[in-house]
Write a structure and sequence with these properties.
Layout lengths: L2 H16 L1 H6 L4 H44 L19
Length: 92
């Protein structure tokens, strides 16, 4: 788990803990409600955008690796890593 994911997880836990006075105590003043809902909504949206960017970067990397493998298998250039062939009896 990266540092950014850890921070996002802590923020999400703090948002959930912040809803406890509303749920368990019935404490629901307007200043708390509007301020907390605005801040927590903005933070959740920010976390969503950051995670979406990480997913897109991962997909871009996967596409690049897939394209390199297809190119190597079609004879374009050698693969950077070839798994050891167990059927030839090497390294025994």
């Amino acid at each position: 788990m990266s540092r950014d994911e850890l921070i996002e997880g802590i923020i999400m836990l703090l948002i959930i803990i912040g809803f406890w006075p509303v749920v368990f105590l019935g404490w629901f003043p307007d200043a708390y409600k509007y301020g907390y809902y605005g801040i927590s909504g903005a933070l959740v949206f920010l976390i969503f955008i950051r995670r979406l960017a990480r997913v897109r970067a991962g997909l871009k990397y996967s596409r690049k690796m897939r394209d390199l493998q297809e190119e190597a298998q079609s004879g374009g250039r050698p693969m950077p890593f070839l798994p050891r062939d167990e059927s030839k009896g090497e390294d025994k």
